[in-house]
Write a structure and sequence with these properties.
The strands form 9 sheets. The chain has a 7-stranded mixed beta sheet, with helices on both faces. Strands 7-6-8-11-12 form a 5-stranded parallel beta sheet, with helices on both faces. Strands 21-22-24-25 form a 4-stranded antiparallel beta sheet. It is globular. The relative contact order is 0.11. The longest helix is centred in the N-terminal third of the chain and has 17 residues, at about 115-135. About 30% of the residues lie in helices and about 25% in strands. Mean pLDDT is about 95; it is low at about 1-10 and about 635-639. By secondary structure, the protein is an alpha/beta fold. The chain binds adenosine-5'-monophosphate-propyl ester (PRX). Adenosine-5'-monophosphate-propyl ester (PRX) binds near residues 393, 395, 396, 423 and 503. One of its GO terms (cellular component) is cytosol. It holds the Pfam family AMP-binding. GO terms for molecular function: acetate-CoA ligase activity; AMP binding; ATP binding.
Length: about 650
């Protein structure tokens, strides 16, 4: 099964799955209520979102639900005062949730920590005080370069509590990628760990930050907080680096929650685009909290007894909305696992499900494909009967993977909720609810209050069954509020197809109005559910001494969905050989980190280019996959 096999299957898939009656009876939102939500959102979308906002706590309510006078710079809930952390922690402390488990964490070696809402609240307050003592305040940027540890969540919440803006950088990124993000954000502080456990090994982390900060690089950073995870030796720079435990030891348990304006940024999340420079997507307190709260509650039907496990790393938007902010606002118990799914053996995830009685398991197709490859014998070693809902995100899920999950993990009872959204959207946009009729491989319909369509390049709707561009036709509360340092790049999302938000995806809608996502329309690869731009990879290759020119394309990969293939023209004095291939792969790992998976490298004498000198990746891809090359007008050398 490759990516294109998947697409073919998607086009043919006709199976439907109905929810079990018991699920419908017990659902927080039953079919009649969902219909009522849709009707209301259809007539009065702002009223719909206002009602959603009323479910949260505010220091001051809004003057208006949406100010669209400066579109596409939409302002949600202007005039309001709030703080998302108040809704994640403070308000639970005043209810029976106070002593409920907020966070369960399991380390790869098998150690585990649990925090009640009160304990998490207390810890966040202490770290908030520590941050303030280091001179961090409202509007300052903090980069969190951490593996999945409780301190990652605590640092995010502490930053937001004091009005600072966090930017979590995935621990798999290289020193160079980290430096680029620190510089763009002009971060004053970095939170990191000495190392973490992955696949039975200790991966050093602090030294990567040291490398990122070397010399005058990233000299915006005044201090670093280091969590002692693996007790490995690290170099601490006097006056700059502080151990987490030393900093909070004497801190008090209360630190005031900063009162934020609706549009004050909550976090930056860097994601890949079509140029070499990652984009700093900005999300702000008010709209993000309303959109994430409503959609997570609806889609995952959160109940007081749930144990919610989203396997995403906090370094991605999924980790923000579905590991930290969404579950905590909902008052549920969120679970986090530090390590590799295959460690010490391939039943690790099922061991965790059984051990903690996980009820909702939300993961990515790349993980499902890996689990499928391990084999079902591992799933049978554990009692998975606590599970009631399954979820998927990040890339199209093939019907085979969907059915495998439904059958082997979900006992033919647990709906698979395939949620379509993006870093930019902040919240789920197109997704079923547990009561929905499901078609494997389809993300079903838009959630109430969201309007999406499939259009051609001019913005005209295309008929049912035909592929086209997936657009959003109306602003939504959790939408990004801007692009850090780059308003023009934000505007581009709304200008490619005037008046609509173009998400970058190709999709189709069937006769029942169900959406089927087919993949990216632009030069962005989706490797194991992680976005990475071909331009970013080409720039990284270009920095290698042997490379004269380079073109990168995505090719199908059985486990990762997609991986990169590079076509390289070497400098005249270089003789390409296997050693060079190894060296180039090593180089890319150093430049970008293990996220950028290179499947193969091919040396060429020249690359197809337009007359203006742009490398035509489309031609390379068509050649590679044996497709029609299409229109070559404009090619520099048509031979
Ligand atoms: O191509 C779509 C794919 O992931 C992209 C967004 O990537 P990112 O911003 O990293 O966020 C990933 C997690 C929210 C989209 O443009 N994508 C996301 N969810 C799905 C998906 N493709 C198919 N089905 C999905 N459920």
């Amino acid at each position: 099964m490759d990516q294109f096999g998947t697409l073919d299957n998607l086009l043919q898939e006709e199976r439907v799955f109905r929810p079990l009656p018991q699920l419908v009876i017990e659902a927080n939102v039953n079919p009649q209520e969902l219909e009522a939500h849709r009707r209301m959102a259809g007539h009065d979308p702002l009223g719909y979102w206002e009602e959603a906002a009323d479910e949260l706590d505010w220091f001051k309510k809004w003057d208006q639900v949406l100010d669209d006078s400066d579109a596409p710079f939409y302002k949600w809930f202007p005039g309001s005062r709030c703080n998302i952390v108040y809704n994640c922690l403070d308000r639970h402390i005043e209810t029976y949730n106070k002593n409920k488990l907020a966070l369960i964490w399991e380390g790869e070696p098998g150690d585990s920590r649990k925090y009640t809402y009160f304990e998490l609240y207390r810890e966040v307050n202490r770290v908030a005080n520590a941050l303030r003592s280091l001179g961090i305040g409202k509007g300052d940027r903090i980069v969190i370069y951490m593996p999945p540890l409780p301190e990652t969540v605590i640092s995010m919440l502490a930053a937001a509590k004091i009005g600072a803006i966090h930017s979590v950088v995935f621990a798999g990124f290289s020193a160079k990628a980290l430096r680029q993000r620190i510089n763009d954000a002009q971060a004053k502080l970095v939170v990191t760990a000495d190392g973490f456990y992955r696949n039975g090994q200790i991966m050093p982390l602090k030294e990567t930050v040291d490398e990122a900060l070397v010399g005058a690089c990233a000299d915006c950073v005044d201090s670093m907080i280091v969590v002692r995870r693996c007790k490995v030796g690290v170099d601490m720079t006097d006056g700059r680096d502080f151990w987490y435990e030393d900093l909070i030891r004497n801190e008090r348990n209360i630190s005031p929650t900063e009162v934020m304006d609706a549009d004050d940024p909550l976090f930056l999340m860097y994601t890949s685009g079509t140029t070499g420079q990652p984009k700093g997507i900005v999300h702000s307190h008010a709209g993000y909290m309303v959109g994430v709260h409503r959609t997570l509650n609806h889609v995952f039907d959160i109940k007081p007894t749930d144990i919610f496990w989203c396997t995403a790393d906090p370094g991605w938007v999924t980790g923000h909305s579905a590991v930290v902010y969404g579950p905590l606002m909902a008052g549920t118990t969120t679970l986090m696992y530090e390590g590799h799914p295959n460690y010490p053996q391939a039943d690790r995830l099922w061991n965790i499900v059984a051990k903690y009685g996980v009820t909702i398991f939300y993961t990515a197709p790349t993980m499902i494909r890996m689990l499928m490859r391990f084999g079902i014998q591992y799933t049978r070693q554990h009692d998975l009967s606590s599970l009631r809902l399954l979820g998927s995100v990040g890339e199209p899920i093939s019907p085979e993977a969907w059915i495998w999950l439904y059958k082997n993990i979900g006992r033919n009872e647990c709906p698979v909720l395939d949620t379509w959204w993006q870093t930019e959207t902040g919240m789920f946009m197109i997704s079923p609810l547990p009561i929905s009729l499901l078609k494997p491989g389809s993300v079903t319909k838009t959630l109430p209050g969201v309007e999406a369509d499939i259009v051609d390049r001019d913005g005209n709707p295309v008929p049912a069954g035909k592929g086209g561009l997936l657009v959003l036709k109306r602003p939504w509360p959790a939408m990004m509020t801007g692009m850090w340092n780059d308003p023009d790049r934000y505007r581009e999302y709304w200008e490619k197809i005037p008046g609509m938000y173009f998400a970058g995806d190709v999709a189709r809608k069937d006769e029942d109005g169900y959406f089927w996502i087919q993949g990216r329309a632009d030069d962005v690869l989706n490797i194991a559910g992680h976005r990475i731009g071909t331009a970013e990879m080409e720039a990284a290759f270009g920095a290698h001494r042997a490379v004269h020119e380079c073109g990168v394309i995505g090719v199908p990969d059985t486990i990762k969905g997609e991986a990169a293939k590079a076509f390289i023209v070497v400098r005249p004095e270089v003789e390409p050989d296997d050693e060079l291939i190894k060296d180039l792969k090593r180089h890319i790992r150093n430049e970008l980190g293990p996220v950028a998976v290179i499947k193969s490298i091919e040396f060429r004498d020249n690359l197809p280019k337009t007359r203006s000198g742009k490398i035509m990746r489309r031609v390379l891809k068509a050649e590679e996959l044996g497709h029609e090359i299409g229109d070559l007008t404009g090619l520099e050398d048509e031979d």
